[in-house]
């Protein structure tokens, strides 16, 4: 059993079809009941480690194998002297699976109190196990089972989800319905399911643990949980004889009236990421020199700098750019060798099909592009709703990457970094301290600066972007106990970790 935080190396993530194939092969390889026995024992061990002093335990069990795992854990908890109430839920006339019936009998024989369709939480319980639904969750949870979920969520203490928090789609990280378990810990079996790490997955799972159940995970992955090695690979030492020209020019094309702060955040982030020279070109109005960052240079209309300069620079367009961003895109799409498009640059792309066509054509000329949409910006690009994007973040990001021939960061909890024809990364760092204005500008600026320093290197662009997303989140994780992280402070926090 291992806690999954940020893995050292990229860790395979699976969708539910691959999980089912793995489960079926594993079941066929061992005597009946073996996997449920292992899952139940692992669950009980983790529960006792997390809540060693809990006397009263509440085990919620559904009619399927998720319930069987939980009832097997109930047996071990009762046998270890805990006072266990196991509430089993099944529709009228529905029989629970044989494995669950066997474990139920063992739990009852060990002294557990068994209740049927009773959602009331026992008094004084400091440990609750959610084994209502796992990967077989098929529709919104209703009725007594929904009440039990709400009762589970109200337990003050350890709330351990078995395999998957009930009501969460472990393939996508979306939920159906209002009743969704809110765990403090989730012990997932056999493999890591992608939906535990993106969308609302992390919010519902709490800490994530993996119990491989002695089964070799040999299914090809559908995505990677980004490992720490990605960021480490970006930490290339500066050569003794290198000069600022070795780290490239970054052009920041951003900042409409009233939004100059966004432009400044992006420019400062590009500078802190290591770009050799950072030039800021405001889209509207003017701004005095930044006295605390005199290294920044301002230039007019850099989008008209011509093919020679744009062809060697790394350019960011967007970041508080307002409607003025649209007019800068035709020359940038045609001439910029390396182009990051954020915020209003993305909205301009969504509004004008000819810009999207120009974006697609860049790939054929060997010009690379990074797009950094949040879910609503992604929805505009995909011509759907933000809810539809959030319903399956991995495939939304992949569709955008494949269609627009760009590396795409779909931002939010568990950011997805997709590239055409490659498996997406899911980022394992970050938290709601990042839900503060301007942190996206910092991300876009840092990607631009980082890319500028690696412009000639062999690192894959997708890996470089995923490494920056990881660093951005890690800075927030280091700050997690201190409330929102202000965007300017985020730059300093990233610099300390870089
Ligand atoms: N097989 C093994 O040995 C291993 C299995 N493992 C474990 O098994 C889990 C998968 O088990 P599973 O396939 O039985 O599905 P599971 O999540 O229990 O749910 C299906 C049941 O729920 C019902 N149901 C569905 N939706 C519902 C709703 N909204 N509201 C109410 N009921 C609903 C549905 O019946 P229905 O009502 O749809 O007819 C069906 O009865 C997996 O997550 C892991 O924990 C692993 O430990 C490895 C070893
Ligand atoms: N709950 C969260 N968990 C992880 N990352 C988050 C969370 N909320 C926001 N973020 C990150 O913060 C950044 C916000 O970007 P964005 O929405 O563009 O904000 P802004 O436009 O104000 O800069 C993104 O990188 C996003 O992934």
From TrEMBL:
Binding site for AMP: 411-415, 440
Pfam families reported for this sequence: Carb_kinase, YjeF_N
CC cofactor: Mg(2+); K(+)
EC top class named in words: lyase
SUPFAM superfamilies: Ribokinase-like, YjeF N-terminal domain-like
PROSITE patterns, per database record: YJEF_C_3, YJEF_N
EC number of this enzyme: 4.2.1.136
Catalytic activity from the UniProt record: (6S)-NADPHX + ADP = AMP + phosphate + NADPH + H(+); (6R)-NADPHX = (6S)-NADPHX; (6R)-NADHX = (6S)-NADHX; (6S)-NADHX + ADP = AMP + phosphate + NADH + H(+)
Cofactor note: Binds 1 potassium ion per subunit.
Entry keyword set: ATP-binding, Isomerase, Lyase, Metal-binding, Multifunctional enzyme, NAD, NADP, Nucleotide-binding, Potassium
Family that this chain belongs to: In the N-terminal section; belongs to the NnrE/AIBP family. In the C-terminal section; belongs to the NnrD/CARKD family.
Name used for this protein in its record: ADP-dependent (S)-NAD(P)H-hydrate dehydratase
Organism: Azohydromonas lata
Lineage, broadest ranks: Bacteria, Pseudomonadati, Pseudomonadota, Betaproteobacteria, Burkholderiales
